[in-house]
TrEMBL record:
InterPro entries assigned: MetI-like, MetI-like_sf
Pfam families membership: BPD_transp_1
Membrane topology: Multi-pass membrane protein
Protein name: Carbohydrate ABC transporter permease
Family, per entry: Belongs to the binding-protein-dependent transport system permease family.
Transmembrane segments: 70-97, 109-129, 141-161, 182-204, 257-277
Main location group: membrane
Location of the ABC transmembrane type-1 domain: 74-277
Keywords from the named record: Cell membrane, Membrane, Transmembrane, Transmembrane helix, Transport
Presence of the UniProt keyword Transport in the record: yes
Record's subcellular location: Cell membrane
């Protein structure tokens, strides 16, 4: 095996250093937030907390877990993430599969109309008027229906369906399968990689729902976690239950630790999903990269 040249070794060393610095730039701020969430208010105010908790305490998380409003927002976020992702995958597959098959007439016009939505997006005011006329404002449907199909994800899923050999589809039809049964029994089992990849994209988008909820939802009971977190961070003072006397001094003295604990709770759940879908996610990201 020929030894790598000096220029190639230097290039690899530069890549290693650059990617390490990039990873640290992404990870260290999260580590700082995590450390502050476990630190006392006095240490946070004094600026003593960097990457290791100072005066370790659980009280910030105890406050967050005792706040019914945060739990309600957490439940709303979980609901729109699970239900919204299912709606997204079903709607995207329902549109992408027909236009991926050569025998469907007019598929090029559908693809062209979807492509137009990438180039030209609807302004905010017409969108709001549409949501209001459809009576979707102040409902969770306003966070689920408008983004049921992502144009980019549609093209990714269509590209995957186009790679399924026609012989498999034809054999299913010869065995008497209807289109719906063929999709359920043949196409979808073969589509786990793309479903996992796009499922992660859709789930992260729903978990981070903020602007749509800010525009279309005015009821605090329907606010997702990100809107509740924004209210918590922007507030000068944190409202507390009068009966929770053990948290009164903490909330009024300095709410930074509580804010950091809420950020961690809002971030960690969606991060934990990735390891379980990593294998399918990597396969899905390779779609279209290799041509036979």
């Amino acid at each position: 095996m020929r030894k790598a040249s000096g220029a190639w070794q230097a290039f690899n060393a530069f890549n290693l250093i650059f990617l390490t610095c990039l990873a640290l730039a992404m990870f260290l701020p999260f580590l700082n937030v995590l450390a502050q969430s476990f630190s006392s208010s006095q240490a946070i105010v004094a600026g003593k907390v960097l990457f290791v908790p100072v005066d370790f305490t659980w009280i910030n998380y105890q406050y967050v877990f005792s706040d019914a409003a945060i739990w309600r927002s957490f439940g709303v976020t979980v609901y729109i993430t699970v239900v919204g992702t299912l709606i997204n995958l079903i709607a995207t597959a329902s549109l992408a599969y027909p236009v991926s098959r050569q025998e469907y007439i007019g598929r090029q016009y559908v693809v062209f109309m979807v492509l137009i939505t990438i180039v030209f997006t609807a302004p905010l005011i017409p969108n709001f008027i549409l949501m209001k006329n459809l009576h979707l404002t102040n409902t969770l449907w306003a966070l689920l229906i408008p983004g049921a199909i992502s144009s980019f994800n549609f093209f990714v899923m269509r590209a995957f369906f186009m790679q399924i050999p026609s012989e498999i589809i034809d054999s299913g039809r010869m065995d008497g399968c209807s289109e719906l049964r063929m999709i359920r029994s043949i196409v979808l089992p073969l589509s786990k990689p793309v479903m996992a990849s796009l499922g992660i994209f859709y789930a992260v988008n729903h978990w981070n729902t903020y602007m749509s909820a800010l525009y279309y939802v005015n009821k605090p009971a329907l606010w997702p976690l990100q809107v509740k977190l924004r209210q918590l961070i922007a507030a000068d003072d944190i409202a507390i239950d009068p009966s929770a006397s053990q948290f009164s001094s903490l909330a009024h003295m300095d709410p930074e630790g509580i804010k950091m604990a809420t950020i961690i709770i809002a971030t960690v759940p969606i991060v934990l999903i990735y390891p379980f879908l990593q294998r399918h996610f990597v396969k899905g990201m390779m779609i279209g990269s290799v041509k036979s």
